[in-house]
Write a structure and sequence with these properties.
Radius of gyration: 36 Å
Distance between the termini: 83 Å
Oligomer: single chain
Shape: elongated
Structural class: alpha/beta
Strand content: 5-15%
Helix content: 40-55%
Mean pLDDT: 88
C-alpha cells in the first residue's frame, strides 16, 4: 500500500514537472531561426508594445452588430462585448456599458498611430467608479494574452562564448564558456541590426521573391503586409528605433574583436518577453504610497566584471535604470497622489523625449503609460502650468455605469444570477434606471436641438428626456418617437448626444452606493412569495431611502419611469394577444381595394379573391380605422375611401399588367393594417369582466367555465408573454391584471 502511494506521488510530481516546464520554460531561438520566423510571420513578430496591446484588445473584444445596419444615419455606435477583457476569469469583474466600450475601443485603436506612442493615457473618474478594478483586469488580460503564441513578444538575449577571446597555454580554448547577458531593456531582437543597415536588410529579408512560391491568396496577403511595414506610421519604429546602449556596445565590441558579423550574430539569442506585474518585468504598477527609489543606476557586478575581462574596463557598461524593466512594456500610475505625482512629472520627460539619462549614458525608453486619476487630480496637474505636460496626456473618462443592462450585471455578479427570478420582467432594469438617473445631467442641448419640447412625449418619457437618452446610450431608438423625429435623428445629432454623454456619470449614486441600496431593497422584498413589482421600486425610492439620496433623483423622474414602464408592458400584452393572420389581412385589403369602386349598399365579386363581398358603411368605417388607427365617422370614412380610390385608379392607368399586391398602395395599406391591428388588440376585451376573471382563474379548474373562444385568447396571450417576453406564468397573469386594473389602454389611447 505504501509503495502504491509512493508511485502515485511520483506520478503526480512528474506530471506537474512536465506541465510547468512545458508552459513556463522559455525556448531560446538562434538569431537565424528568429529571422526565419520574422519572414514567415512578420505581422506577429514585428510588434512594439503599442501594437501588441492593440492586438490584445482586438483579439479579446467581440464587436457586436449594428442594430440599424441599413440606416444611413448610423454612426457605428455598436455593442462591444468586453467580457473577455474585464469579466471572464477575473476575481473582481468590471462591467462596461456601451458608452465606455466604444470610447475605450477607439482609444486602443489609436495606439497604432505614431502620434499616440509618446502620450500618457489617463483614465479619469470619480471615486467608486471602478478605475482600479478596470486597470487590474486589463493588465491581467494582457499578461494572459502574452502567455499565448498569438500574444508572443520577443527580446534580445546574449550568449557570449568567453573561450573565443582567451587562450590557454598559448592555444585557443576549445570548450565553450558561455556568459549569459540579458538585455535589461527588453529590446526587440531586430533592433540589433544597426540602424543604418536595417532598411536594406528588411527589404531583402521580406523580398517579394520570398513569397513567389506561396499560394496566390497567401502571396497577396504577404505583399500587403510588406507594404504596410515599409510605409505605414505604426511600423516606423522598426526603422527609427535604436537598440539599448548595452546591446549596441556589445554588438560593435564583439565585431571589433571577432571581425565577423556572422560570429557576432551567433551570440545573439532570442526569447519570449515574459510580462510579470508582480516582478515588475514588462509591467510596473505604482500606488501613491510606493516610495520613490533613491538609486537610479542599476547594474550586475558579476556580468560587468566578465565584460571588463573580455573587452576592457568600461568599454561595455552594463548599467540601466528601473525604467528599463518597463521598456517596451507598460507603466501604470494608480492615482496621482503622494509620490506618484513626482513619478508623473518624471515620466513626462521620458515620454516626451523617449530618453532617460543613467550612469552617463542615454537610455531609450518606449513604454505604454497608463494613469488613473480623480477629477481633482487633473486640476492639480493643471496648476503646474506645464503646457507640454498637458499636451502629452490623453484623458478618457471612466464614469459610473450609464446603461441599465450593465448596471443589472453588477447586481447579478454580487447577489447572484437568481435575482431575476424574483422580479417581474423590466422591473429589475427599472431599479437600475432609477440609479442611473442620478448620474445624468438634467439638460442636454443636442436633445433640445433634436426634439424641442419633450412635453409631447410626457406619456412615455420624463421632461428632461433622461429615459430617451438612456435608450440611445443602449443603442435603441424608441418606437414611441414620431416618424418626423425619427427622420430628424441624424448621424450629426447622434454623435452630439453620445459626445455630450462624456460629461455624465461623474456624480450621483456611486457604484458602492448603488450596490448598498440594491442590497437593502432586495433584503426587503426578495423573500416574499410574490414577484417584485414596479410599485415596490417606486415606493422604495420615494419613501425608503434617505432624503439626501432622494435629492439626487431628478424631480418627477419616478412618476415618469412608472409611465414609461406602463407603456412598455401595455405593448407587451398587446403584442402577446395580437394574432397575425397574413392571409386574412391580405384578403381584407384586397376586398377594400375592390369596394372603394362601389357605393355602400351594393354587392360584388372581388376580382382578386373571387369571393362575394357586401359593401356597407360599417365596412368602410371598420377598415378605415385599421388603416389610420382612428375611429372615423361616416363622412370621414367615405372621404378616406374616395382618396384611396383615386390612388387606385392612378395605379391602374400607369400599369394594368402589374400585380396589385406589388404596388406601393397595397403595401402601405397592408403595413398600416398590421400596425393598427396590434395597437387595438385589447380593445374588444378591455371592458369584458369575463376576460379579467378568465385571466385570474387561468391554470385552475374554474378556467373551464369560460367559453372556448375566450379561453383560446387568454391561453394565447399568457403563452406569448412567457415565450416572447420572459414572464413566468404567474408573472404573465399579474401583468395582464395590472394593465387592466390601471386602465393603461385608456391612458395611452
Amino acid at each position: 500500500m505504501n509503495g502504491k502511494k509512493m508511485d502515485e506521488k511520483k506520478i503526480a510530481l512528474e506530471s506537474l514537472k512536465r506541465e510547468i516546464e512545458k508552459k513556463e520554460k522559455r525556448a531560446i531561438l538562434s538569431f537565424d531561426d528568429f529571422l526565419e520566423l520574422t519572414r514567415n510571420e512578420p505581422q506577429r513578430v514585428l510588434r512594439n508594445i503599442f501594437q501588441l496591446f492593440n492586438d490584445m484588445v482586438r483579439s479579446s473584444v467581440v464587436k457586436g452588430k449594428d442594430e440599424y445596419p441599413d440606416d444611413p444615419e448610423s454612426i457605428g455606435f455598436v455593442e462591444h462585448d468586453c467580457s473577455k477583457l474585464f469579466v471572464e476569469g477575473m476575481d473582481n469583474p468590471f462591467f462596461v456599458d456601451r458608452l465606455f466600450a466604444n470610447r475605450f475601443v477607439r482609444q486602443m485603436e489609436s495606439l497604432r498611430q505614431g502620434s499616440q506612442q509618446n502620450k500618457m493615457h489617463a483614465f479619469m473618474g470619480p471615486s467608486g467608479c471602478g478605475k482600479s478594478t478596470f486597470m487590474d483586469n486589463l493588465l491581467k488580460a494582457f499578461e494572459q494574452y502574452t502567455d499565448t503564441r498569438e500574444g508572443q513578444s520577443f527580446e534580445i538575449f546574449w550568449e557570449i562564448d568567453e573561450s573565443q577571446f582567451f587562450t590557454k597555454n598559448g592555444r585557443a580554448c576549445t570548450e565553450p564558456k558561455i556568459i549569459q547577458v540579458s538585455c535589461p531593456s527588453h529590446d526587440h531582437p531586430l533592433l540589433v541590426i544597426p540602424k543604418n543597415y536595417r532598411v536594406d536588410f528588411l527589404d531583402k529579408l521580406l523580398s517579394k521573391d520570398v513569397y513567389e512560391d506561396m499560394p496566390r491568396e497567401m502571396s497577396t496577403k504577404m505583399a500587403e503586409i510588406r507594404h504596410r511595414i515599409a510605409h505605414e506610421k505604426e511600423y516606423e519604429w522598426v526603422f527609427k528605433e535604436e537598440v539599448c546602449t548595452i546591446c549596441k556596445s556589445l554588438f560593435w565590441s564583439l565585431f571589433n574583436k571577432l571581425g565577423s558579423v556572422d560570429r557576432v550574430l551567433s551570440m545573439v539569442k532570442v526569447r519570449t518577453y515574459q510580462f510579470d506585474r508582480r516582478l515588475g518585468e514588462g509591467v510596473s504598477v505604482f500606488n501613491p504610497g510606493d516610495r520613490l527609489m533613491e538609486e537610479i543606476c542599476l547594474s550586475d557586478k558579476q556580468i560587468q566584471e566578465k565584460l571588463n575581462q573580455i573587452f576592457g574596463a568600461n568599454l561595455v557598461k552594463y548599467v540601466f535604470s528601473p525604467h528599463a524593466k518597463t521598456n517596451n512594456g507598460i507603466y501604470v500610475l494608480m492615482d496621482i497622489k503622494g509620490d506618484n505625482k513626482g513619478r508623473l512629472l518624471e515620466l513626462h520627460n521620458v515620454v516626451s523625449e523617449g530618453v532617460h539619462k543613467v550612469g552617463g549614458v542615454e537610455e531609450r525608453i518606449n513604454s505604454l503609460v497608463f494613469v488613473l486619476m480623480n477629477p481633482e487630480d487633473r486640476k492639480d496637474i493643471e496648476k503646474e502650468n506645464m503646457p507640454s505636460l498637458q499636451e502629452r496626456i490623453d484623458y478618457k473618462n471612466v464614469s459610473y455605469v450609464m446603461e441599465a443592462g450593465t448596471e443589472v450585471k453588477v447586481y447579478r455578479s454580487i447577489f447572484g444570477e437568481f435575482i431575476d427570478e424574483k422580479f417581474l420582467p423590466r422591473v429589475l432594469g427599472n431599479f437600475a434606471r432609477m440609479v442611473i438617473s442620478s448620474r445624468m445631467n438634467p439638460s442636454c442641448n443636442p436633445l433640445k436641438e433634436w426634439i424641442g419640447d419633450m412635453k409631447k412625449y410626457e406619456k412615455y418619457c420624463d421632461e428632461n428626456g433622461l429615459l430617451l437618452r438612456m435608450e440611445i446610450y443602449s443603442g435603441v431608438i424608441p418606437p414611441w418617437l414620431s416618424d418626423e423625429d425619427k427622420r430628424k435623428f441624424t448621424a450629426q445629432i447622434r454623435r452630439k448626444i453620445v459626445k455630450d454623454a462624456e460629461k455624465e456619470g461623474q456624480s450621483g449614486f456611486s457604484g458602492r452606493e448603488s450596490i448598498e441600496m440594491f442590497g437593502d431593497f432586495f433584503g426587503r422584498h426578495g423573500e416574499k412569495p410574490n414577484l417584485i413589482t414596479m410599485g415596490s421600486v417606486a415606493d422604495y425610492f420615494k419613501h425608503k431611502i434617505s432624503e439626501d439620496r432622494r435629492k439626487l433623483i431628478p424631480q418627477n423622474f419616478i412618476n415618469s419611469l412608472v409611465g414609461w414602464y406602463n407603456y412598455v408592458v401595455l405593448n407587451e400584452v398587446k403584442e402577446a394577444l395580437y394574432f397575425y393572420n397574413k392571409e386574412q389581412i391580405r384578403e381584407d385589403v384586397l376586398h377594400y381595394l375592390c369596394a372603394v369602386n362601389h357605393e355602400p349598399g351594393s354587392k360584388t365579386k372581388c376580382q382578386y379573391t373571387g369571393k362575394k363581398i357586401e359593401i356597407t358603411v360599417d365596412f368602410f368605417k371598420m377598415m378605415s380605422s385599421y388603416f389610420t388607427g382612428k375611429d372615423m365617422n361616416i363622412v370621414d370614412a367615405l372621404k378616406f375611401a374616395r382618396d384611396i380610390q383615386s390612388k387606385y385608379i392612378e395605379i391602374l392607368a400607369q400599369d394594368r399588367d402589374r400585380e396589385i399586391t406589388d404596388t406601393e398602395l397595397y403595401k402601405e395599406l397592408f403595413d398600416s393594417y398590421v400596425k393598427n391591428l396590434k395597437e387595438k388588440a385589447l380593445q374588444p376585451f378591455i371592458r369584458n369582466e369575463s376576460f379579467r376573471e378568465a385571466i385570474k382563474l387561468f391554470g385552475t379548474e374554474e378556467f373551464k367555465i369560460f367559453d372556448a373562444r375566450l379561453r383560446d385568447h387568454v391561453e394565447y396571450m399568457i403563452r406569448n408573454l412567457v415565450k416572447k417576453f420572459g414572464y413566468t406564468e404567474q408573472g404573465a397573469k399579474e401583468i395582464c391584471l395590472y394593465v387592466i386594473d390601471e386602465k393603461l389602454v385608456e391612458k395611452f389611447s
